[in-house]
């Protein structure tokens, strides 16, 4: 699935309930890392759920592995993973998770602690991408 396809899905949603349902459906598409891989991923602080995230650059492309023990967060992580995997280094230098969530109209109903975990992921992305200069 591409980010354009995700945008199209959310553009069709008329209510938060429909957006929530889309997040749950997308969460099912996020691959759960095997236990030995999950054990090596950094745990992100600040989120009410357990949240793992790792960003790397391989074969001229950015890749991330992300996972959570919360379904709704896994839907968001699937969106984030898709956006990152399609993004150039230049685009990731100014990447904003808040803007991404706003664009899909899923930012209003997220708890502050869930947003804190995502803000920490954004800081990690910025740090790693800017170090790649």
Automatic annotation (TrEMBL):
It comes from the Bacteria. Pfam families: SufE. Residues 10-126 form the Fe-S metabolism associated domain. Gene3D superfamilies: 3.90.1010.10. Coiled coil: none annotated. Belongs to the SufE family. This is SufE family protein.
